[in-house]
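Q: Got a minute? One more chain.
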Amino acid sequence: MMVGPGDATDTMNDATPTGSAAEPVEIETPPPGAASGVGMLLARLAIIAGLLALWEFLPVPRGIRFWLSTPSAIVTTLAGWIADGSLWAHLGATLAAMASGYVVGCLAGVSIGVLLGFLPRAHRVMRPYIAALFALPKIALAPLLIILLGIGLEAKIVLVAITVLFLLLGSTVDGLNDVDRDLVQTLRLMGATRLEVLRKVLLPSALPWIFTGARIAVRYAFTTTLLAELIAANQGIGFLIEYHSGNFDATGTYAAVLVLVIFSVTLTEILSRIEARAARPRP
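A: Always. Here it is, folded:
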C-alpha cells in the first residue's frame, strides 16, 4: 500500500516520544569557579610545602645554616613560647597598647574635629599648627616619649593615640566641611540652635567620613605600636623581634616574624570583612 505525505507525517508524529521522555534532562553542575578555587588552594599549599622542604633539607654550610635556621627549629621555638605562656604575654602587650591608643585617639580626634567644625574661626586660626603637626612623622616622637614616660606601656599608648588623633581629626573636619551649607542656613533661618544643627545635620553627614577614618586608623595604630616596640620596649611582638635579633638568635627572630605575619594577616582579614559588611547596601 502506498503511503502519502500526510500519512508519513502522522507516522513520524506518532513515533515521537511523548511525556517526560521528551523533556530535556537538567544536569546539576558545580558552581562556576568552585573547582578552580580548590585547585588554586592546592597549588598554593604545594608551593608553600615545596619551599619549606627546600628550606629544611637544602644542603648548605654550617655557618650559613646558623643564619638560615630551619622550619622545624622555628616551630619548636614557637611551641616552647606557647607552652610557657610568654607568647600570649607579648601578644597581649601589643594588643593592649594598640587598642588603648586607638580608642583614646579616636575619641580625642572626633571631639576636637567636631569642636573645630563647630567653631570655624578657631579652625582657621589653628589650621597652620594642625597642618604642621599632621605632616610630622609621628614615630619621630617615640624617643621623646620614651624619655618622658619610659619604655613601658604608657609611651606606646600616647604615640598610637597621637597618630590616630590626627587621622580622625582630619576625617571629621573634612566630613563637617562637606555638609550642604544651604541646608544649614535653612535650619538656622527656621530658628534651629547651633546644637540642633550639629546633632541633626552636621554629625549625621560626617559619620561616613568618621567611620572611614576609623577603619584606616586601625592599620596605622598597629604599625605605630610595632615600630615603638622595635625602638624600645620590654614586651610585645616588636620587642621579641628586636631582642632575638640583638642576640643573633636567627631561629627566635624568624619565629617572632612568623608571629607578626600571622597577626597581621588575621587583622587584615578582620578589617576586610568589616569593610565589606559596612559597604554592603542595606535594604
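A: The first helix runs from residue 5 to 15.
Q: Perfect, thanks.
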